[in-house]
Specification:
Elements lengths: L1 E7 L4 H4 L13 H16 L6 E4 L3 H14 L6 E3 L16 H8 L1 H9 L36 H21 L4 E5 L1 H11 L19 E5 L5 E6 L6 H18 L1
Parallel strand pairs: 1-4, 2-3, 2-4
Antiparallel strand pairs: 1-5, 5-6
Helix pairs in contact: 2-3, 4-5, 6-7
């Protein structure tokens, strides 16, 4: 039996502002840095250490990983950064405030863009400054890999090659692996491990920011167990989760 630890980055400044972040390279908020440190302490309290870790190329995930490793005293641990673990690209929604987006398009439409497996958000044009082709970090990628906006299916499609080709061999070699990434890229991977049907992936909630979770995997790299290392939620976070859940129920009722 192998263990795999995953962690969604701490809250970013755009999480605080309720803006769609996607591939935008925003930094952690003060609360997000605190969440990352707490996540590191939770992992340490469970006696876990690592041999190798994976993260995205986005700052909020890299910063979270750095804080966790510092908390664990493992600052020198090899860290592999891949665009395949980036957050979902929200196309023309990136940077927009979620409340204003709800008012403009309607809450039901926004929820559909967020949760339907094959429904893309409004797409960018290639001359938009938010298009990843203008970012030197992606200069070596073919244009066919650079999104103008992504469906949930597209996120799953780009995450799984990294899992199969880079992460699984490390686990099979007996390495203890930590993945620090984003809500949608982690949802794509965790639902693969859980055997969730493609059409049901969008119905699965994304992990909370700063909350580590651990998979137990069998020889076939399928989940046989999962547990969470819960950290206390602030009153502000609890209130926001309650509001989001109420909106979701009203729309889907």
């Amino acid at each position: 039996m192998s263990k795999l630890v995953m962690l969604r980055h701490g809250r970013s400044v755009w999480n605080e502002a309720r803006r769609f972040a996607g591939w935008a390279d925003v930094e952690l908020s003060a609360e997000g840095r605190d969440e990352a440190a707490k996540a590191g302490r939770l992992i340490k309290a469970h006696g876990l250490t690592f041999d190798v870790c994976f993260t995205s190329v986005l700052r909020r995930a890299s910063e979270t990983l750095d804080i966790v490793l510092e908390t664990l005293g493992q600052q020198e641990l090899p860290a592999h950064r891949s665009w395949r673990l980036n957050e979902r690209h929200y196309g023309a929604l990136e940077g927009l405030n979620r409340g204003e987006t709800d008012k403009r398009f309607g809450r039901a439409q926004v929820l559909s863009w967020q949760n339907e497996f094959d429904l893309p958000p409004p797409l960018l044009s290639a001359d938009d400054e938010r298009y990843p082709g203008h970012d030197p970090r992606y200069a070596d990628l073919p244009h066919s890999e650079l999104p103008l906006g992504e469906t949930i299916r597209a996120v799953r499609k780009r995450v799984l090659p990294l899992w199969e080709e880079r992460i699984v061999p490390e686990i099979r070699a007996g390495k203890r692996v930590l993945i620090v990434a984003h809500g949608n890229s982690l949802r794509a991977l965790s639902t693969h491990l859980d055997g969730v049907a493609e059409a049901e992936v969008g119905k699965v909630r994304r992990p909370l920011t700063g909350e580590p979770f651990v998979y137990e995997l069998d020889q076939a790299m399928r989940a046989v167990g999962r547990s969470y290392f819960r950290q206390p939620l602030t009153i502000k976070r609890l209130a926001q989760i309650a509001v989001d859940e109420l909106k979701r129920r009203v729309v889907t009722a």
